Amino acid sequence: MELISNVKFDKNGLIPAIIVDVNDGQVLTLCYMNDEALKTTVETGKVHVFRRSKGRLMLKGETSGHTQTVKEVYFDCDGNSLLFKVEQNVAACHAGYKSCYYQMCGTDGNGIKIVEEKVFDDTKVYK
Hints:
Blueprint: H1 2-5, E1 15-21, E2 27-33, H2 35-44, E3 48-51, E4 56-59, E5 68-75, E6 82-88, E7 103-105, E8 112-114, H3 122-125
Parallel strand pairs: 1-6
Antiparallel strand pairs: 1-2, 3-4, 5-6, 7-8
C-alpha cells in the first residue's frame, strides 16, 4: 500500500492522526493508528484507531454509531503524522460534543470555558 510506505510509525508502532471535518475544517480529534488501523481505514473508508488504553483496534464510533467516513488523506513532510478529512456522523467526542476540542483556556487568565454546545447526551449513549 503506497500510503503505508510513505509514513513512519514510532517505536511503539503508532502514528498520530489528526481528524478534521471535511465540510467546515474543524479539528475533531487526535488519535493514534498502528499499521492495521491505517490499512483497515484505507480499505474500508471508515476511520479505525488503535486504542492505547484498551490495546486493540477499534472503529471510531464503534459504540456510539458516530462514524467517520474518510474523504481525503494527507501525511506530513516527514511522514510521521497523518491528517484525515472526514464526513462526521453526529459527533467525534465521547463527551457529547462535535469536537474533542470543545474547551478553551483563555489567555486572559479567566480560566477554561466550554465553546461548543453538546450535540448528544453522552450519558444515554455510553451506559
